[in-house]
Automatic annotation (TrEMBL):
Transmembrane segments: none annotated. Residues 263-273 have a biased composition (Basic and acidic residues). Residues 263-286 are annotated as: Disordered. Residues 43-181 form the RUN domain. Signal peptide: none annotated. This is RUN domain-containing protein. InterPro entries: Run_dom, Run_dom_sf, RUN_PLEKHM1.
Length: 286
């Protein structure tokens, strides 16, 4: 029962991967066709061409059978180490001798991974990729020694759709450079897209969190204190201003009541006081 459940999960995962690969292949073909339509010729060094090669590499990697050495490396090896799957033995079954010899003469390509990647680019350059894919479709049982039953290349329906898509751009002139050591290892994208590997999640230290609610309350308290201080300053200023205005109003009222200037009244009062205090205040007038 557990084995049946596990197989159903694996098939579901493979179906999702195949659908993803198919949709990405469609997108790459459309980009190449649009590039050709706008410029009148296809730029084989464009991003669309690189994306097409990446998707094709993932298609050939998907569902490839693991060797005993691969299984041992997965079981006891470092999970961060990328696998190095290669489908070169399967390509030897379907490829012409001339193509195999041509790849073997490349000086800088010295690994089976590099030969696999060069094979895809040479087939695009020579316009032979659909021919080889049709041979794989017609002799699909020959792939059983190299690929699982759920592999992309062993699904005749999706493989037929792949052939149709590639045929739409095979008439374009591809001129991809092949003799380079950069092709000797797999980059990350085709491995991830095919589902054979994914980068491990690194453990990162978690910093202490900040209590946002507490910080908001502190900000509200600070703003309230500032508002209270401002209100106090405004109140004192208003009181001082009102005091000045009230003093001014009393003097004006006194002017109205007496009918004289306040300063003049003060001078008269001072004169009377001076006269009263003078030594002539007791002299009688005859």
């Amino acid at each position: 029962m557990k084995s049946l459940f596990r197989n159903s999960i694996i098939r579901s995962k493979d179906s999702i991967l195949k659908e993803s690969l198919q949709s990405q292949l469609v997108a790459c073909v459309k980009d190449i066709q649009l590039d050709h339509a706008h410029s009148g010729r296809f730029q084989d060094s464009s991003e669309a061409a690189d994306s097409l090669c990446t998707v094709l590499e993932a298609i050939f990697i998907h569902g490839i059978k693991e060797t005993l050495a691969d299984k041992m490396a997965i079981a006891i090896g470092d999970p961060d180490v990328r696998p190095e799957p290669n489908f070169w033995p399967a390509l030897l079954v379907f490829s012409h001798r001339d193509l195999i010899d041509q790849i073997g003469r490349l000086y800088y390509v010295c690994t089976d991974v590099g030969r696999c990647r060069v094979w895809i680019r040479m087939c695009l350059n020579d316009g032979l990729l659909t021919s080889y894919l049709q041979s794989m479709l017609a002799q699909n049982k020959s792939l059983s020694s190299f690929y699982k039953r759920s592999a992309y290349l062993r699904d005749t329906e999706v493989l037929d759709m792949c052939i149709t898509l590639i045929a739409g751009i095979e008439s374009y002139s591809f001129n991809m450079f092949c003799n380079t050591s950069l092709l000797n290892t797999w980059p990350n994208p085709p491995l991830v897209m095919s589902g054979v590997w994914s980068p491990t999640m690194k453990a990162c230290p978690i910093t202490s969190g900040t209590d946002i609610a507490r910080s908001l309350m502190a900000e509200d308290s600070a703003s309230k204190v500032a508002e209270d201080s401002m209100s106090s300053v405004v109140s004192v200023a208003s009181y001082y201003q009102s005091s000045l205005e009230s003093n001014f109003d009393e003097e004006e009222a006194l002017k109205i009541i007496l009918g004289t200037d306040v300063e003049q009244s003060r001078e008269q009062n001072k004169s009377v006081e001076d006269f009263s205090s003078s030594p002539h205040k007791n002299v009688e007038i005859k």
